Amino acid sequence: MSEDLRNETEVGLAEFARRLKALGIDILKQSKMPHREAIYLAIGNSHYQTDITLSREFFDDLPNTRQFQDAVDSYAKAVSGRLKCGSPEVFYCISRIAVGISILWPIQSAASTSGFSRFILMDVTNEASNEIAKCSIQLGFTLGQTVFDIVLLTVQSVRKAVDQGQIQFYKRSVHQEVYQRISRDEGPTTRKAQSEVEQFIAGKAYILGFLVADPPGEIWATDPWDASYLGVSKKELLLAARTLRAKGLLEPGSGEEYARPTDNLLAEQSTEPKGEQSFLTSQLILSRLNLPTKDILLSDLRVGLKRHPLSAVLLIDLDNFKSVNDKYASHSEGDACLDRVVATIASIIGRRGKIYRWGVGDEFAVYLPDFSTDEALVTAERIRSAVEQARPGGDIPVTTSIGVCATDRTSSKTAEEILDFADKAMYASKHSGKNRVTAWPIAS
To answer: Are 368 and 312 in contact (CB under 8 A)?
Structure first.
């Protein structure tokens, strides 16, 4: 410990360490932030850690301030619970993406023409693809807000941004000069129904327990930060986990609040009989905001190809959508147009396939397990015709250019190649007149 730390700070640090230790968390590293009245701390265990920066004033007041003590205990319980299952910086999202959120301390500050502002910088990692996004979030000035409150706010805002497709991930070799701005989400969370909570925990068990963990591990089913994210109570999380155990999808973990995914859950995820929906892939009311992303499509296709050697993918790009946004400056009509397109596609594919957001703009994808090229072409043509007749852009003729690739007409069987071929077919539709369907291989 630095010799120049005041006695009050030393006492506060000791109190902080004691409260962490009571929950099995160690202080692995601490250092005074240069030119700042703050202390950087790395906390965790011998396998995983996270970090945080707290002011000297916080440590000075900690021994005698109940609010600060409660904040430390709440944060430490959340960290210790996740440490039992892996990295405390990895979080599962409703959109079935696992993200690592590494905050780049300290909190930044800047003066601008609009006044003084504070903001957090962070690296957000897609755990499945190992791609990264450099992001920032501007902080408000809330009376009584601690750094622990800011960490929770940041995590929940990132998760919701991921769900809404607002974050673009890049390969680690790409130099990102600009931080992507994430909106601060402090509004009330819409309460999720019990079936949605069960779906969330099952998805979390599959993604974090099977795909991220190596070897397969357990999950913390009653994480209070998940409860906040879903707008439910810890009791409802526990009830959902018990229901999944009764269904044979989970088995008990190291304690009642922990669970392990079973082979039944793995089988259900990878088994999607034609004309039916599995527990994890049932889709709620669809809009552009809650569609799974390209990364989820890639993951689903990889798993699906093992079960359905005959599979098809449609890539759908909207024609003339830019004109909708150009006409309506607020973009609200553009968003409504996208939602109408999603609803139209969903009405065509029903339970035979699954819709995804392809990027963050006006492109979508459909995965059709157990479909041949001819079957996929019929479905694609129905989508093209239905969107044209629905007139989602109002007086602007928004139509679709669709690319189709199925495994019966290509020797390449990897998910990446199938998506690439469907993408090429979609661009062929786009550049040969629009409002049409093209199948791979493309005819000369």
So the answer is: yes
